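Entry details:
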Amino acid sequence: MRNPGEDQSIAVSMPTSASVAGSSGAASDRRLIQRLLMELLVMVILIIPICVYEFAVDPVTRGFFCDDESINYPFQDNTITPVMLGLIVGLLPAIIFVVVEYVTQLRAGDISSTVDYLGWRVSTWYVELGRQFSYFCFGLLLTFDATEVGKYTIGRLRPHFMAVCQPQLMDDSTCSDPVNLHRYVENYKCVGEGFTIDDVRQSRLSFPSGHSSMTFYAMVYMALYLQRKITWRSSKLSRHFIQFVLVMVAWYTALSRVMDHWHHWSDVLSGSLLGVAGALITALFIARMFDDGVVSILTGGLRRENTAATLQEEVCPTTPPPYSANSSFNEEQYCSKV
């Protein structure tokens, strides 16, 4: 017989289901916090090179020919100012994310559903909104970093370089002097009369176009996002019209850079391709928007058929070969041989 003390000690030593659930929940929260901190660290690491390039690094100093017409354009203000660029690249995608995620959850009837997120009851569409926006920001930082590396490594002169720099050679002569007409100049200083030091520095950052890379990344990514998330049953063309408008915003921004003499056409082309590549890589391999579609494309659109039954039927042919009549194998032995 057991005494009551043994039963009591056994009952005390066995963990309760509530304690097990609490420990598993705490472990899940720790893993979530670690993942969030790691992703935040990655974002900060991507921001550091941008700050270093913008505030601590001078672009490569390139030489030029005094009679180079491609850098002798007049200076003009930006049609798409940096503030407008920020609204296009940052505010517009944020509005689209909020509207699309809210409407998607509303249609699914899950707008009031919540999840436990680090001890807080958070709406599920808030979590999805944050996830989508984090993917977008990650790809945007990657594109920005690639653009900055190109600008400061190449140091290509903008079309209005001569108007802004107003170079003075080491012998105090200028490019307007006839003796320097076809001269290649490497040693010079920028007078920059009427312009700031930052204007002179910016005149060496033509390749690739940052406006083009940023806007094409943002707009192409949003077009792919709408393709994945939104369907209008009442109209098949509405979604494609919005996608077209988004891409045209990027296209006009890129064209304005050539029109304003801030970039050469090749700078705009390279920046646009860089932005499109960044959007495609982020959408396909980071956000993984079209996993099913990519598999279908890679397999040529062919469905995988279940061939188990077919193989089972063909293991033993119904009609044995002609030589089987004179063979010592019966039908069962023949099938095992096949």
